[in-house]
Write a structure and sequence with these properties.
Chains A, B: Keywords: DNA-binding, Transcription, Transcription regulation. The structure is a homodimer. By secondary structure, the first copy, chain A, is α/β, with parallel strands linked by helices. Chain A folds into two domains: 84 residues, Winged helix-like DNA-binding domain superfamily/Winged helix DNA-binding domain (Arc Repressor Mutant, subunit A), CATH 1.10.10; 117 residues, 3-Layer(aba) Sandwich (Oxidized Rhodanese, domain 1). Chain A has ten helices and seven strands. Chain A has a four-stranded parallel sheet with strand order 5-4-6-7. Chain A is globular. Chain A starts with a helix and ends in a 19-residue tail after the last helix. The interface between A and B is large, with 53 and 53 residues. Chain A binds a DNA duplex through helix 4.
Chain lengths: 234, 234
DNA sequence: TAAATATTCAATTGATCAATTGAATATTTA
DNA sequence: TAAATATTCAATTGATCAATTGAATATTTA
């Protein structure tokens, strides 16, 4: 192999590996999942991921270095977000690949359901059909700020901690579909548990908003999140 | 955050990170690119990547552990291959994401063309149109064994080292499109250089066969490579 | 201007990973 | 069966990375 080709390849693969390195840490994968919901401050991310602010900041610097995220300073706050939609799609494909190839992950996912009674899922394709017919109620159980940054069209925002207070507003004779942050999040599972315990017909949609978007691109109920205030503003 | 949720997330992200770790090494990314062309023995991979057999084997064990590759023992040989098509698609999306986000990589790619005169590219979409019209000649300049394992439909195999011997067989009045292993490989660039130096109209298709496949799924000139002999059999 | 707050930076430490080396193992052939 | 060959394994060493700690920096407010 020619020396020039060797140099080219070494350089090219080193650049590709920047992204690989960024997603080689479980912590950073979790951060990326959080940022899939919209932009967040460092301390919000730290709280969501149970890490110190300093450690979170370090990980975010790594994500910046690999160009997967961007940030904007607003006062004393730094708001981080995914660099663009292709990053979200890449993370989704990583998740789907792992689900397909890693049996240990398959097992973890199955345990969600074996550890709980009566949690059922709905596929996105079926949800789309049902929503067109109007015989389903879709609820987003993430924090309201995330709903406001982006959500599946037609969804109602009921953050998980408010769910029990809102039971009276929900139709007892219609199926309720609950979704949250995606495949690695249990909020929607909890929601379905609560709903079913109260006699509602409820199922989980495990796909995230970004997954919805990447499969239903003609919908556009997504606004750029950088001009929205994050929950830290009080 | 609940303890149970914490445990779930830690476990899930640890599993996802297995794939991240696998692609955090430049060397392994190069190996995956080689395996995108079809199954190979350890020593062939070692030779292609300029690594020792022992080091190559170590990296391959890492790729096995993350389920991105599989192998089959045949006599004293171990033939490694990508686990399935979703792995190839994932690597392609990594490459495309990096090309989009990493300016240093963009620069490396531009230098291919600034360091050489007159290398032009053709897009896959245009190639498809041209091939339907029949006014283009497509050549695959990879090693013949790779061509035989899989290739773009309609391509003629002319390994780069044979190209000058085959000039007489090529049409001087028709555009020739050369392709090779993909975006990180320079064989097709060299081929275009040679062809143009000899007065042919030649352009480069930088997409790989796997990219072709992921965008043109109705074609099926791909046979499972595990029943084919690798170039090491003499 | 000082105090309060959010974040980054730098140093340290322990953990993890990559390359090398050479022995061990498996397969084939004469 | 011994020799040749392909590959893996295990140990070692040096390099790299993650978490912690606390100082430094930037922003805002009274």
């Amino acid at each position: 192999m020619e020396k020039e080709t060797r140099v080219f390849k070494d350089n090219v693969y080193a650049q590709l590996a920047r992204i690989g390195k960024a997603i080689s840490s479980p912590r950073r994968l979790e951060i990326l999942d959080i940022l899939m919901q919209g932009s967040k401050t460092v301390e919000t991310i730290a709280r969501e991921t149970d890490m110190s602010v300093a450690n979170t900041s370090q990980h975010l610097q790594t994500l910046l270095e690999s160009r997967l995220v961007e940030y904007e300073k607003r006062g004393v706050y730094s708001y981080y977000k995914l660099a663009d939609r292709t990053v979200a799609n890449f993370i989704i494909s990583l998740q789907l690949l792992a689900e397909k190839r890693i049996t240990e992950l398959q097992k973890l996912r199955e345990e969600i359901y074996t550890n709980r009674d009566n949690i059922e899922q709905i596929k996105m394709s079926e949800l789309i059909v049902r929503m067109k017919k109007g015989n389903v109620t879709l609820i987003d159980v993430r924090p309201k700020e995330e709903y406001e940054m982006m959500h599946i069209p037609g969804a109602n925002s009921i953050p998980i901690e408010d769910l029990e207070k809102h039971l009276a507003t929900l139709p007892i004779n219609q199926e309720i579909v609950a979704y949250c942050r995606g495949r690695c999040c249990l909020l929607s599972v909890e929601a379905v548990e609560i709903l079913r315990a109260h006699g509602f017909k409820a199922v989980r949609l495990e796909a995230s908003v970004q997954e919805w978007l990447s499969q239903n691109d003609e919908y556009s109920n997504v606004h750029d999140c950088c001009n929205k205030k994050n929950s830290n503003i009080s």
